[in-house]
Design goal:
The complex is a heterotrimer of chains A (435), B (238) and C (405). By secondary structure, chain A is α+β, with helices and mostly antiparallel strands. Chain A has helices at 2-15, 17-45, 82-91, 127-132, 144-148, 158-165, 215-220, 238-244, 259-278, 293-299, 305-335, 337-345, 350-386, 398-424, and strands spanning 56-58, 80-81, 96-108, 117-124, 136-139, 153-156, 174-177, 180-188, 211-214, 248-255. In chain A, α2 packs antiparallel against α11 (305-335) and α13 packs antiparallel against α14 (398-424). Chain A is elongated and about 95 Å long. Chain C is α+β, with helices and mostly antiparallel strands and 405 residues long. Helix content of chain C is 49%, strand content 17%. Classes of the chains: A alpha+beta (435), B alpha/beta (238), C alpha+beta (405). Chains in contact: A-C, B-C.
Amino acid sequence: MFAYYLQLGLRSLRRNPVLTALMVLGIALGIAASMTSLTVFHMMGSDPIPWKSSKLHYVQMDNWDPNQPYGDDGSPPDQITYRDAVALMQAGKADKQTAMFKLALPIQPANPQVKPFMALGRVASADFFGMFEPPFRYGGPWGRDQDAAHARVLVLTSDTNEKLFGGQDSVGKTVRMDGVDYSVVGVLDKWKPRFKFYDLTNGALSAADEFFMPFTTAIDLRQRASGNNSCWKFPGEGWDAYLQSDCVWIQMWVQLDSPARLAEYKSFLDSYVNEQKRLGRFPRPLDNRLPNVTQWMQAQRVVPRDVEVQTWLGFAFLTVCLVNTIGLLLAKFMRKSGEIGLRRALGASRSEVFRQFLIESGVVGLSGGLVGLLLTGLGLIAVRALYADYKNVAQLDWTMVLTTLVLAIVAALLAGLYPTWRACRVQPASQLKTQ
Amino acid sequence: MLAMKHLQKVYRTHLIETHALRDFSIHVREGEFVAVTGPSGSGKTTFLNIAGLLEEFTGGEYKLDGVDVGGMNDAERSRLRNEKIGFIFQGFNLIPDLNLFDNVDVPLRYRGFNAAERKRRIEESLGRVGLASRMKHYPSELSGGQQQRVAIARALAGSPRLLLADEPTGNLDSLMARGVMELMEEINRQGTTIVMVTHDPELAVRAQRNVHVMDGQVTDLGEEPRLRVPASPEPMPA
Amino acid sequence: MEIRPILSALMRSKVALVLIGLQIALTLAIVCNALFIIGQRLERMQRPSGMNEVDTFAVTSSGFGEGFDVRSTMEADVTLLRSLPGVAAATAINSLPLSNGGWSSGLVLKPDQRTPLASAAFYFVDAGALDALGLKLVAGRNFKPEEIGYRTMNDNVTPAGVIVTRALAEKLFPGQGAVGRQFYIDDPRTTPPTTVVGVVDRLQEPWVDSKEIEYSVLRPQHLPYGNSSTYLVRAEPGRRDEVMKQVEDKLAAANPSRIVRGLKSVESVRAEAYAADRAMALILGAVIVALLTITALGIVGMASFWVTQRTKQIGTRRALGATQFDILRYFLTENFLITTLGLLVGAVLTYAFNVWLMTHYESPRLPWHYVPVGFLCLWALGQIAVLGPATRASRVPPAVATRSV
């Protein structure tokens, strides 16, 4: 019977091509608008590392100006000072921990054919790799011992390795950056997090990192972060004063493998800050925070307001399209009340009429979904053209393709419910007499 | 009241010409109750449509209440229809979304009467058909006979000179049909000219005169009219 | 004329009323708020930066290696740039308006003042800056070449005099004339105050999202960042692209141990700064167009359906004396009534939507005139959309009344 109703539905849709096109286009436009915005929303807003996002915690401590909070809402700074980062690293109370900052350095390739170029990289601790789990193609991360030794080592990303060494295994080779030689210990495989969830202070959609360098080594070489730096009082003259100052420019992540460990770390942090308070630092009330990955994403508003508004708007638009479809389906079904009466007179039960027309609605929904999918693709191309930095997040994945089709069919079935119910109420043969 | 001379009506499609009326002549006098009978496809309905100015004719002459309607434009015909003619349809043709009051109100609105005048006429005409108490009801809440009474009230509300009825009892059972017929006779007695199209001979005999139509022509003009209430003397056609 | 009976007939077929009314209501709410957002974005994008954006471009030099000396390079580069054919003016500068990156700090008038009076952006420039940026001096004087110093990590000098924007001058010294007055631009506890030597008409901060975007301070200092330095060049009118083409090679040739990068016109910097606003405006515009189209098509579809359903009724009305115009007017009036009911609901929705945007997205209040203008537009849209079906209805022949189907 399903096949028969499907055939009837298709035939009925073909008979009224303008009305059908209108309905399909209506659903398709609604679906495309909502799915384009939802895709961007989903790609930016969903958990980038679901298997361990609850174990990774960002460290926030409030060392700010007693007269003025850091955030407008009173929140503590989104980075910490160098001296606190070093203290926490040395205490080593977490299961894994890394201090880090963003660094731009000129690379002077050995190959004379490659011009020197500026590379944006990340200064981090050995644990970074175990915490965020980038895949390695050659070699591996440096160890904690190399952190301690301020070793001049590098991990390259695959793109940089491609540029410098033609994609060959470069472990053990030397890279010269700003007049200093570093030896390569590892090369990453393609690592494409949708956004830079491990550095939300310098733009989640900023360009991908090109190299990784030990934190201790970069400090040794007096490299200043090229990311955000904020001071609430004059740091004093010179590099050493800067390191001892209350300027915040370091990001710190810790891995805590259980809620108990989290609680332990929280109390460790509190006692650390209280101790610092006795030394005259941290003039504001105690406000240590350890948000996990998704909480930190919320706090840093990774999903821009515009994208949220667009998503709401997309669904409001879909609602209008559905109301529109209800009207058109109603018009279409009621025009066929003669046929319905005849079918009922010939023995079709009410539920069979119901099924027939619901299947017809489903066919409209599926067609709308397929056209909508196409339009969603076009919509995402437009989004990528409009927002240069959205190229990784304005992408359809299989979940979204499936969601699109399901949403379209569900939407059309919902829209078809009322018209179908009306169609069912047509009395058998009520229309026969006057025909 | 109604005079057609050598009236022709030809329907043309690109393939065939159908002569619905050929050389159709009839004269209905003020105050008459005429039944037009004939088999299906004889041209009864075409006659009624032309008589009611619902359709144009293709040849001949038609005078309604002394006015030559040939060459009138659509708006003029609508106006004339509204002022001079009341319609009673086989299917009642009440507007289902309007209550009785508003249904009777429809032609009066187009006439342009003021609200008080309309209200007076609606109440009076619904009273005449015995439905004054149900003005706020909707057509679906009434029986067929009652619906047709409303339709008659609607036709009468504008005080038309001529009432055109198209199988007025066709959709009614015999009891209701009798009631409607009696109402129409009563209306005729009060001076309104009635032309009724029907294929039912039993109904037709209750009219004063029977005109038989066959193949688009009048075949029998019926007996000479007996005027019950001569309202205003009208010259006989030559 | 016949509003009451049309209205009571509509109330009998509520589904149609609800379907079209709801569409109209949502359309009004979305269109008004979307237009309001677009308006805000366009307004934002039209704010002048205060500088000459047409003829200017920026370029950055990043030196590397032991032998690189950033100070001598900066001086040589500025001299080189100024000597290039087609260059009208050039300056070393740490950041640009519209670039969304730079240095800002709170300003106070007295050393013991706890909360800053204003937060302002610092532009570290030389004496050629006013000319290169194309700024208009409205009071005081420009910097003298001998006043230009350096600011580095080991050399935290506060300049004796600075130039501020008119907006900042008015904020710091309301109605008093700022030139010659003193305030603190660095830590007031450890550094001396500075004196206003000049006031420029207008210069935006680098951050387009800044609340007080016209609070800028020009400091007569070079600010190399590590071994990097940035320059702003103003070309002679019409020669920008020609100058841009040669500047990279000229700078690279002058000193090989560096990377010359970030060559971009200020126009492209502006485009980048407002790309998100532009995108938002375009997306909302597309949504509005699609929404109006869908709603109009919906009205056409529903009205056509009603006309088909009510053919007999139309014929009857014609038989009872309605002219073609009466029928046309009936459908136009009916549409007007449905639209109006939808719009009344829509007005409530519009304000609800706006309040929601205000609570969650810091949106300002919707100016009152959006809703009445929206009413007029949707009335017009409804009437135009229904015109086709209504005309078709008016052509229904009166003889339909006597047809048995």
